[in-house]
Structure formats: structure tokens, C-alpha cells
Amino acid sequence: SNEKPIVRILDSEEDAAVALAEYTANLSEKYIKQKGSFSVVLSGANLINTMRKLLKPRYNTTIDWSKWLIFWVDERVVPLDDPLSNYKLAFDGFLSKVPIPKSNIFPINYNKSPADVAVDYESRLKKLVDEKIIPLSASKFPKFDLILLGVGFDGHVASLFPNRPQRYEKKRWVTFITDSPKPPPPRITLTFPVINSASDIALVVLDKGKADIVAAALGGAVVTPSLPCAEVKAEEELTWFLDKDTASKLK
Ligand SMILES: O=C1O[C@H](COP(=O)(O)O)[C@@H](O)[C@H](O)[C@H]1O
Questions:
Q1: Source organism's superkingdom (predicted)?
Q2: Ligand 1 pocket: which of 156, 160, 167, 206 to mutate (most atoms <8 Å of CB)?
């Protein structure tokens, strides 16, 4: 893996959205040529809005949407039509506007118990690996083509928070949390071994309120406990997408 991340600093949020679309479209073409499909793992919150340029010409017409497979890096354990659902956010803002086959979209199966939802999501991923739809990494974790991550104000990625034990999980593919510091409290999340097995990862941070967190993560500051966003590594390439304001505290 390439240890050093690529840091792209765009003039504005708008330019960053364009750059993210170009980056995603290029990876889509590369992986579809290479392996016949493109697995994309989504986050919630701001990311979906930043993906909006993919819905516009030329991307919407040139991307082979039929080969996309969609997963979630984390999900709030709420019904899929709840306003807090990451699936609903992605569906309303993105997935309902592109022709990805429904059978290629893998939301959680909602159940009241976060533990059960995590077990179910993990077993569905295992099945996709058994069916050779998702490859396995050298360390025997599912290897997604692209994971798109946001970063929270506390430096969290997915639902891996600085002061919660889930971030240290080494064996499971999917785990759960019932006391997320950011609401809603019950969530499931992919674990670090899975995230860090992905081929490409984009960390998309476009919020000047996160300038200090980004500077700490990229400047290698010693923070205790360490910032989850500073623990992200990709097998091929890790790219940070920042705008000028968010990058303003980088040295
Ligand atoms: O709660 C969550 O927060 C993170 C960060 O969101 P952002 O809008 O501040 O970038 C998000 O990536 C994650 O998927 C979500 O569940």
C-alpha cells in the first residue's frame, strides 16, 4: 500500500464536488475494466451532497451504473424510511437518480437490535465473498474498490469514534454501537480491518470547522486517543479532498 496520502486542496466546495466526481468516474472505469464491477461504500451526512456532480452530464451518461455495487460504511439502526437513515439520505439524494439495479444495492436489514443488524450485514458480506462478487484481501477481509468517508468534528470516520471501543475491533467485519456520541446512538459500522483493506479511499472534508482536526490528522499530531481519521489507510491510494478553508491550518 501507498503509505503517504494524496491531499487535494480545491478552491471551493463546488470545485471539490467536481474533483470527487472525476475521481470516482475514473475509478469506476478502471475497476469495471479490471474486474467487471465497481463496489462503492458510502457514508452518510454531507458526503451524499458532495457526490451530486455524478448525477450530471457527462458522468451520468458515461458511467456504467449497471456494474456498481453499493454498500454502507456505517448505518444508523433506524427503519430505512427514517429521516436519520443513511440509506434514505443516499436514496433520496443519489441512488434514486441513477440506474443502479436494485439488487446491487445493499442497505441494512432493519431490526430493533443493533447486534443482530451487524451480524446480518456481516453474513451478507460473507455470502458475497463466497460468491466471488466481492474479493478477499490478503488479510482475509472483504476488499471494496472504493470507500467514500466523511470525517466528524471529533475525527470519527464511519461510526468509529475516538472514545469508543469499536475502533479497536480486529476480527469482525461489521460491529455495532449502542451509545454513539453523535445521535442517533444505535448504529452499525464496518471495522478498521475492512476499511483499511479497500483498494481506494477518499476522505472528503469540506467544512472549515474541521480545519483543526484535519491539520492534526495530516500533520501527525500526537492526540490521545488517536483520531480515527488518522488511522485510515488504503491498499492502493488514500486521497483527502479538502477545500481551501478546511485546509487552512495545514502547515
Ligand atoms: O454520523 C456520521 O458522521 C460522519 C461524518 O459526517 P459529516 O457530515 O460530518 O462529514 C459520516 O461520515 C457517517 O457516515 C455518519 O453516519
A1: Eukaryota
A2: 156
Cell 445493499: give the residue: 106
Residue 77's SS3 state is: coil
ipTM score above 0.90: yes
Q: What is the residue with the minimal CA distance to atom 12 of ligand 1? A: 150
Q: Quick one: pLDDT at residue 11?
A: 98
State the distance from the centre of ligand 1 to the C-alpha of 45, rounded, in angstroms: 5
- Answer yes or no: are the C-beta atoms of 234 and 201 closer than 8 Å: yes
Ligand 1: centre distance to CA 29 (Å): 27
CB-based pocket (< 6 A), ligand 1: 43-46, 74, 86, 149-152, 159, 182
**Closest C-alpha residue for ligand 1 atom 15:** 44
The amino acid at 87: Y
- What's the pLDDT score for residue 246? 98
What's 87's domain CATH number?
Answer: 3.40.50.1360
pLDDT at position 2: 58
Look up the domain containing 206 and give its range: 6-243
Give the Å distances, CA to CA, from 114 to 4, 10, 31, 52, 172: 35, 38, 32, 30, 14
Q: Which position has the higher pLDDT, 226 or 1?
A: 226
pTM of structure? 0.98
